[in-house]
Amino acid sequence: MTKVSAPERPVEEWADDFKPSFAIQGLLDSFGPGCKDTTYCSYCKEEGETTPATSWFSVCDDAICERCLRMHKRIPSTNHHDVVDLSGETKVKVKRKVMCKVHKDENIKYICKDCKTAVCQTCCIIHHRKCDLVVEIESEIPAMKTELRKNKEDLLKKQDEMKTHVRKQTSNVDEALTHYLQIESNIKSASLKAKEVIKVKERRLLTELKEMSDKHIGELKADIKSGEMSVQMYQQQAELIDQTLQSECDMGVYEMYQGCEAGDVEAVGVADVTEKGRIARIMFILDTDKLSRQLDDLQLGEIDVLYEGVLDLKATHVLQDTINVRVAGDVYEPNLYDVTVLLVHGTDTVVASDHYNNSVKSFYTRKKKQCHSRLSLSGPLWGITKLKDNQVAVTVQDTRQIVTVQVKPDLVLLSTITTIKQYFGITSLTPSTLAASSVLPPCVDILDMAGHVLKSICPGQPSRYILKYPLYLCTTRTGNILVSDWGSKCVVCLTPEGDVVFTYSPSGDTEMEHPRGITSTSTGDILVTDLNLDRVLHLTEAGQFVRTILTSQDGVQFPRGVCVGGRGRMYVFMSDEVKVFTLN
């Protein structure tokens, strides 16, 4: 790239600012349409003659005929020049003379290795007298050509490797397209099944509606028929009374009067149609909020992306970074109780709950610079979990609150949810439900986003509770709840309905002394920290011990918890710092 000195001025004034491309010009001179034609004698052509050339003088860069060759050899300054015999019409590669840009009448013949530039003899005398390595270009050509040949071999090797890579990626494209079409088919199939379930419910409701409406309308029509009969009977009785009144028979009037007094006339009419158990009204009761929650929680499936560089728990771990979580505004030494990681604008953002400083903190990189944000709350914090749309929920102990925060990655308070219990651990189950752990009694509650308890899970009998001090929770990829219980020194996996999937409570070398933070990876593997034993354990999705991943030798001292981010990164946090490891 060349910066033009005055682009607004005529081209002729700044064209020389462009550096010449000697490589391209040399190729054009040697092989392009402008290369020297060796068909005719150069000297004869200057005289207007077309004499066939028989020889080539490389030093003079000319093709000459036999007559001019004899003259050339008579001149002492040129009689030693090398001569190449020409046969027929031959194009000779020109050994181009590059003229100095400063001293335009001199050829560039030297290289100043100190200054890394090609120069003429005058430049050497004037500008490079003190340089140690000024050599002739010609002497360096063999080494340069050797290096260029090596570069050529490297390029060809890279070319072959790239061709192989392109072929592989082309094959991957075909496989990916086939895979995506299969996923699309699966999504449509899941959607059709969900629609069919809704259709079944629709048909059931419509059938029930028809049955009830037919019954109701039948009862109403029966009432109408009965009423019409009553109208006729009342009319007939009225006509009979009218005829009696018009007659001259006193006894007839007396009998009619006696009948009316005894109620015989009305008794002839229809009986009271009001009965118990009859349908008064049919209604369709729609709980819009409940339907909305159920639609939000409707699980057609998930699109899960496995990135290159995904966390490989069998690989060797490398400490990538250490994040100091003490920030301006802290009154006390930081004391992190829980951490999660969100992908915000393509960057991993660490969000932590600082128990002592009553604050949520975020740590991220912006323009290659480490940045942070701090949000103060009304009490000591404990658990933290990811919600949808780059939001987190945090438990606030003393105030019995759950606070939701937007991570932009700067922190913005969204809402405060008041609960009836003091909660410690927290995890998001669905877009509309949370799971939170309490110690009085020891249980895991399923909550809606308003803080109402939908279900309370207390596995075991009161005298033999499995949970004793559940401090940390997380959700597995299948929607179950993992509980790290300090009191019973175990990990428990629960379904949202309250069933126990497994309990990890080993003895011996794998026994846990103080289990704390817990997380589940996209592959279903489980990671749990042991505060007192300074280690991070790896369990299978079924709760079987695999290995100890990190220990105090890796710089893990009193680990509070662990979480997994993108690009094969694992975040282990202590009270005052977060260590970032890569396993790939």
Task: Characterize the structure shown.
The protein is of the alpha+beta class and 584 residues long. The chain folds into three domains: 20-140, Double Stranded RNA Binding Domain (2-Layer Sandwich), CATH 3.30.160.60; 141-285; 328-551, Neuraminidase. The chain is 29% helix and 30% strand. It is built from nine helices and 30 strands. The protein has helices at residues 11-14, 22-31, 42-46, 66-74, 121-127, 137-246, 250-262, 264-267, 288-297; strands at residues 55-57, 62-64, 83-85, 108-112, 117-120, 134-136, 317-324, 336-344, 347-354, 359-366, 369-376, 381-387, 391-396, 401-407, 411-418, 426-430, 433-439, 442-448, 453-457, 470-475, 481-485, 490-494, 500-504, 515-520, 526-530, 535-539, 545-550, 561-564, 569-573, 577-583. The strands form eight sheets. Strands 7-30-29-28 form a four-stranded antiparallel β-sheet, with no helix packed on it. A four-stranded antiparallel β-sheet has the order 8-9-10-11, with no helix packed on it. Strands 12-13-14-15 form a four-stranded antiparallel β-sheet, with no helix packed on it. A hairpin with a 4-residue loop joins β18 (442-448) and β19 (453-457).
